[in-house]
Amino acid sequence: MRVLYLVLVPVAIGMAFGALSCKLMPKERGKKDSKEKQTVMTTVGKRTPEWAHSTNIYEVNIRQYTPEGTFNAFAAALPRLKDMGVQTLWFMPVTPIAKEKRKGTLGSYYACSDYTAVNPEFGTLEDFQRLVQQAHTMGFKVIIDWVANHTGWDHVWTKTHPDYYLHDSDGSFHAASGMDDIIELNYKNPELRKAMIDAMKFWVQHTGIDGFRCDLASWVEVDFWQEARPQLDALKPLFWLGEFDELENPEYGKVFDASYSWKWMHQTEDFFKQQQPLSGLFELLKQYSALGDSSMRAWFTSNHDENSWNGTEYEKYGNLAQPLAVFSCTWNGIPLLYSGQELPLKDKRLKFFDKDPIPWPSKSAGAKEGLTLMDFYRTLLDLHTNNPALRGGDPAVITYKLATTADDKILAYLRKNGNREVLVVLNFSDAKGLQFDISDSNLAGSFKNVFTGVASDFTTGKHFEIAPYGFLVYEKQ
């Protein structure tokens, strides 16, 4: 995808915007301290499924979604999520949780005790198979969280294949950096690699899932993913979302269809809390653009890590939360939502290791009443799905960053695919009655505001007024 940053002279910058993880405190998220990461740069010839270019992802926290916390109980929410415009369901790990060194009463999703079994807390394998089938019948895609870097302390392999693990000098299993409830696997062992790939095949073959969200993907040697993907894709075309930021791990971008926008998430929070200049965010978007035409990112304002440990999107971004949500759904990539954001979870941090159900207003995860942001997200998700100008990772799409007379406060951009266009204007400030102009020949013609239905002609007049932390989204008519 091409993105043009227009300031004084139009400058073309090649761009493929696409574009979560076990619990890591901010200082702990990063590289391993236990083994060297391979940096094999050879591409595996990835073939991103066509549907991924216009999809969105909704992260499902089964434990907290309903009072029952089961697959069967969650199924009642499928019609509502379909109505909201959700396309892809990402289920946090569905595998059993280790009991040894378990945190809290229920433990971490990310401390697996068996890669080819189902957490009895959520139901049975048959329950999950039925849920996937129901989701597919309704038109959803389904991906599952895959935790390849580590297991819990009493995973079945610790007894049957201790050689699959890294060991400390005293012979004990090596705990993952900063996390004492999990131990790291040894990817120098070819038998471990084969066993891991076989376990992943199990879920494709027995449940029909459509892909994987790979936890801490960059903590596992890149050549493992290069080895695994062709074998898994041979079963069916799969979608691969990796938890890494491609700016820091470009070699992984050659294997995965989409990555995380961690730097954007952290820098937007710093922008809001530390009153940093907006130009820094513009520069970061340019850096993402330089990653190439096939590069995609998942954009988000919340996920299971952020909500539980760092705060809700409103704690992190305040009134900037909604403009950033609009950005996540309209910039080049894949919008990613977390369970309950449609409420929203304004000041509710969900517990990570204990039962803490989402407080749905009608006491039903399937009910629509009282969901303040459901219509907001429906509008954005439907626009992203149905307007080709918002396709991610598509070289046919051009994104113009538009110069305004208030560039210290406004992010404005136009996305075009043939004769389809979407204009987005975001106010990153609390300025009241802010008026400004866009003087750019690429913006012309009749547009309609997707939230209000009001039409505007930008052929000659390109004057705007916007509310504090406001957002305007237009579709060309």
UniProtKB/TrEMBL annotation:
It comes from the Bacteria. PROSITE patterns: PROKAR_LIPOPROTEIN (PS51257). Gene3D superfamilies: Glycosidases, Golgi alpha-mannosidase II. One of its GO terms (biological process) is carbohydrate metabolic process. Residues 39-384 form the Glycosyl hydrolase family 13 catalytic domain. InterPro entries: GH, GH13_cat_dom, Glyco_hydro_b, Malt_amylase-like_C. This is 1,4-alpha-glucan branching protein.
